[in-house]
Amino acid sequence: METKNIMIVGVGGQGSLLASKLLGHLLLTQGYDVKVSEVHGMSQRGGSVVTYVRFGDKVYSPVIDRGEADFIVSFELLEAARYLPYLKEGGRIVTNTQRIDPMPVVTGACAYPEDLIRKMEEKGALVDAMDCLSCAEQAGSVKAVNIVLMGRLSRYFEIPEEKWLEAIEACVPAHFRQMNLKAFALGRG
Predict the structure, then answer these.
(1) pLDDT per residue over 96-135, tens digit each?
(2) pLDDT computed for residue 125 by the predictor
(3) How many Cβ atoms from other residues are within 10 Å of residue 175's Cβ?
(4) DSSP class of 170
């Protein structure tokens, strides 16, 4: 199997580490060779963060270069647009529609870009955008956005839903499992 590449991008503190851990666990249980990078960026200060997940028959490096990502999973709309150059032709962006203003917007130095979904689609990206924050709140916690996104991403894989649920059970502490299983179901739709 050709190596597949997934970038998980967002803002520090949104749960990208759990999302990449869950994805890595799931893919390993399906028999793939998997490489997951560490979180890169200002993860403890609300800055931009990125994690790479690569899987296939044999994967030699965890790094994804520009134009190689099959999927970009984004916790925040501007982060999806920021990493668009990494998406391969025909690649898909699975993104939360939530806006988190970066410091230049907060200070008034610039405005948050408008129409980002349309702009990404005009550049050839297939965009699946949903309000993951509302789904997470419905599941019981705003911190479940990461699992809502994993539910949405699962729609594009031929891996049975029960395998995703088993990965959640293996990676999420027992007292958060039911909430995360609900968040996954809401994301999957």
Answers:
(1) 998 888 778 888 999 999 999 999 999 999 999 999 999 9
(2) 96
(3) 7
(4) H
User: Could you tell me if 73 and 8 are in contact, meaning their C-beta atoms sit under 8 angstroms apart?
Assistant: yes
Tally of domains in the chain = 1
Taking the C-alpha atoms of residue 118 and residue 124, their distance in angstroms, rounded to an integer, is 10
Report the distance separating Cα 52 and Cα 7, nearest Å.
Answer: 5
CB 137 within 8 A of CB 183: no
Q: What CATH number is attached to the domain comprising 177?
A: 3.40.920.10
Per-residue b or e along 48-69, where b marks 16 or more CB atoms closer than 10 Å to that residue's CB: bbbbbbbbbeebeeeebeeebb
* Length reported for the chain: 189
Q: What is the C-alpha separation between 80 and 100, in angstroms, rounded?
A: 12
Domain that holds residue 62: 4-188
Q: Give the list of residues 6+ apart from residue 134 with CB closer than 8 angstroms, or none.
A: none
What is the Cα–Cα distance from 142 to 136, expressed in whole angstroms?
Answer: 5
State the pTM of this model: 0.93
Q: How far is 86 from 138, CA to CA, in rounded Å? A: 32
End-to-end CA distance of the chain: 28
